[in-house]
């Protein structure tokens, strides 16, 4: 079948503009995680990874 999607939570759980700065998921995605199918979780992980990259770039620009 496929690998099981791993929960990206790293127990930071601080939101900035409704996005967790630890895992990159939105508040709604975090709430819905348990009810999601594996395919949905994988899609969320991909989007969350992109958000974290953008957050990282934004932090570097602020300095």
TrEMBL record:
Superkingdom to which the source organism belongs: Bacteria
Pfam family, one: DUF1289
InterPro entries: DUF1289
Record's protein name: Predicted Fe-S protein YdhL, DUF1289 family
Organism (species): Stutzerimonas xanthomarina
Species lineage: Bacteria, Pseudomonadati, Pseudomonadota, Gammaproteobacteria, Pseudomonadales
